[in-house]
Amino acid sequence: MNFDKYIPVEWSNIQDLRVGPMRVQAVRVMVVKLAEYSELAESADGIIGLDLLSRTKSFTIDYDRRTVSLQLTEAGTPERSPASCFVISLVVQGIPIHLAVDTGLQGILLYGNRLRKLLPKMRIDGESTNTAMGRLRATQVRLPGMRIGGSDQVRTVFLIDGPDQGDLPGLDGFFGAASLHAKRIEFDFDAKVLRWQ
């Protein structure tokens, strides 16, 4: 599932994979032409997903230093099931919503059809604009009453129609980590908390 539709992928098994200090054996990986699905991936050889990163205790992205640091779990710690996504909750006009964090996404992408069911009287600030986000066609709006960590704010978000309700159940969209304008972001899998500075 790529935001709003399924894309064809092939699968392969890798016997030994190392990412920094992490070593994983017998891992199944997706094989796809990345540049066909994201202009950000044109020069990338691969994407490290949360199915691998969630095997760590936490990982930190330092945007100033352009580094990713992994904190491995301690020896003897029971292995947890790999996560398919890191979900955060935030509030929109008094209603809690659940978003998957995406480190490559530049903004906040909400499933408009799901949000309208939760908020039939959803308020927007000003006019809406049709825009493109790569292959996605979205409606850009300024949404008042968004609470991310602190007080209510007006945030610019992108609305698309999400997949059928049976696909990605309980997910109302995607939260681009870059929208925090943070210097550092930490994904803490033990505490299930996202921290930023």
Description of the molecule:
The protein has 2 domains: 10-75, no CATH class; 87-182, Acid Proteases (Cathepsin D, subunit A, domain 1, Beta Barrel). The chain is globular and about 50 Å long. 6% of the residues lie in helices and 44% in strands. It has 197 residues and is mainly beta. The chain has helices at residues 50-53, 112-118; strands at residues 10-19, 22-31, 58-62, 67-71, 87-92, 95-102, 108-111, 129-133, 136-147, 152-160, 173-176, 184-188, 193-196. Strands 5-6-11-7-10-9 form a 6-stranded mixed barrel.
Q: Output the CATH topology of the largest domain.
A: Cathepsin D, subunit A, domain 1
* Count of individual beta strands: 13
- Please summarize the sheet with the most strands: 6 strands, mixed, barrel
Structural class: mainly beta
How much strand?
35-45%
Q: Helix count, per DSSP?
A: 2
How confident overall, as mean pLDDT? 85
CATH superfamily of the largest domain: Acid Proteases
What general outline do the C-alpha atoms trace? globular
Helices and strands, in order, run as EEHEEEEEHEEEEEE
CATH class of the largest domain: Mainly Beta
The spatial strand order of the largest sheet comes to 5-6-11-7-10-9
Unreliable segments of 5+ consecutive residues: none
Task: Tell me the distance between the termini.
Answer: 31 Å
- In helices, the fraction of residues equals under 10%
Radius of gyration, taken over Cα atoms and rounded to an integer in Å:
18 Å
CATH second-level architecture of the largest domain: Beta Barrel
Number of domains: 2
